[in-house]
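[recover] target loaded
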């Protein structure tokens, strides 16, 4: 290619777009290289629904207030303290100014969804979901003069000393090379490379489903790590949730997630419970269930509810299995009928007073005398018809990534790389050591995308 660009942004999702728009507004000539075809642009961002946002009072669709300490405490709880506090607090503090910036760049918000996502205070929901956000950003980027190449798969970034010399990519059947002044990597994790997942996790990973885009294969990540760019995170740590076992192998998206766990019991293929289904409100606990299911035989679990719980959560994309008796439901799910009936009977006997049941907050309605306990929303499963779902581990994105500083800049053991920045899922492991908090991935991508765009433009100018 003969065109000269100030900044090449690798990736086409939320973080890439925030970086590209910010850099373009600072006067830089920006090229986005998106591996996916245009209809599938946006990476995992097109499957998102909301953005977790600190605010000191009502803000946009958000009610009440959600301060830095509350936000950070929520993050510490789900990560068990495995986070870079400085970068985490940076993301949290800057999230408040991001919401009006998002609106200025075309994003529209709506009131919080109901069901188990009781997030009106903490998370701002996108009107039309992530696909609308992605489309709005592409429209805005176009008006700012950002160029986009689709089906442009980056294969190599040439690192020479402390700078990236060139970027190689394939496009329309040809290999092309550009020499931008600065590079921003926002191309996600490696979760769609199931061979890499299997090397990290072992054979159980062969049974995992990939919730997000099939185009996040970690090609750029691997290329940079092989050249000595500093990494962060554990390859076995990821955002993994329990999803409907009938979901496709790739790209099922957020609609395949099941939100019924708090009102259920969950058993493995031996019809045995294995964890507290009511440990905390769902947005703080849904992301642990992928790993829990991954640890069960054949990496599968089964949700069992009765008719009184059917309307307490957002509807599933696939209807549940339905039977008038637990034995019939067990047969439909290929579970041992006698054992399932025994497990349910023991659970029911352990349930106490349910008069305080409250589906949208911790209610303390718990079991006694059984292990594992159920510490909230514990009601007997007694009212037919009975319903069941199969669960599989659904991986959203991996946490092994590029280590960055507070300016989103990458480096090697010898020091910073002068013209390389990273944003979004490809550097989220800098903040997320384990676990996940609903909407926080979009926070990381927005905050560090804007930082990367600003810093890269400053360098290019």
């Amino acid at each position: 290619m003969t065109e000269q660009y100030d900044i090449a942004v690798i990736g086409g999702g939320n973080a890439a777009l925030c970086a590209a728009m910010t850099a373009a507004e600072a006067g830089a000539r920006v090229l986005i290289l998106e591996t996916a075809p245009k209809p599938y642009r946006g990476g995992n961002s097109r499957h998102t629904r909301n953005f977790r946002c600190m605010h000191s009072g009502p803000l946009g669709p958000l009610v009440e207030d959600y301060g830095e300490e509350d936000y950070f405490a929520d993050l510490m709880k789900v990560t068990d303290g495995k986070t870079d506090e400085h970068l985490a607090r940076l993301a949290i503090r800057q999230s408040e100014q991001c919401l009006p910036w998002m609106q200025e760049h075309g994003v529209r918000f709506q009131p919080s969804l109901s069901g188990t996502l009781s997030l009106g205070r903490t998370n701002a929901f996108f009107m039309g979901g992530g696909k609308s956000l992605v489309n709005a950003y592409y429209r805005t980027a176009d008006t700012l003069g950002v160029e986009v190449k689709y089906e442009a798969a980056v294969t190599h970034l040439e690192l020479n000393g402390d700078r990236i010399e060139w970027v190689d990519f394939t496009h329309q059947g040809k290999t092309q090379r550009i020499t931008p002044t600065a590079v921003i990597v926002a191309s996600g994790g490696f979760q769609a490379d199931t061979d890499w997942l299997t090397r990290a996790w072992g054979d159980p990973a062969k049974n995992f489903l990939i919730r997000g885009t099939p185009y996040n294969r970690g090609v750029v990540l691997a290329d940079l790590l092989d050249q000595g760019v500093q990494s962060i995170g554990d390859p076995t740590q990821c955002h993994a949730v329990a999803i409907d076992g009938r979901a496709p192998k790739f790209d099922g998206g957020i609609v395949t997630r099941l939100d019924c766990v708090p009102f259920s019991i969950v058993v493995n293929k031996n019809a045995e419970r294995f964890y507290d289904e009511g440990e905390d409100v769902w947005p703080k606990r849904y992301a642990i269930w992928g790993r829990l299911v991954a640890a069960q035989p054949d990496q599968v679990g089964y949700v069992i509810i009765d008719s009184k719980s059917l309307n307490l959560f957002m509807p599933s994309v696939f209807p549940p299995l339905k039977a008038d008796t637990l034995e019939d439901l067990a047969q439909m799910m290929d579970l041992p009928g006698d054992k399932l009936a025994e497990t349910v009977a023991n659970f029911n006997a352990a349930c106490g007073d349910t008069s305080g049941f409250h589906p949208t907050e911790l209610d303390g309605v718990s079991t006694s005398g059984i292990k594992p306990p159920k510490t909230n929303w514990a009601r007997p499963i007694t009212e037919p018809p009975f319903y069941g779902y199969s669960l599989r581990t659904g991986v959203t994105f991996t946490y092994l990534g590029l280590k960055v500083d507070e300016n989103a800049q990458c480096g090697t053991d010898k020091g910073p790389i002068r013209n390389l920045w990273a944003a979004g899922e490809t550097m989220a492991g800098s903040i997320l050591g384990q676990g996940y908090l609903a909407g926080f991935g979009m926070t990381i991508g927005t905050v560090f995308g804007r930082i990367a765009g600003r810093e890269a433009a400053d360098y290019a100018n």
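[recover] notes: The two ends are 22 Å apart (CA to CA).
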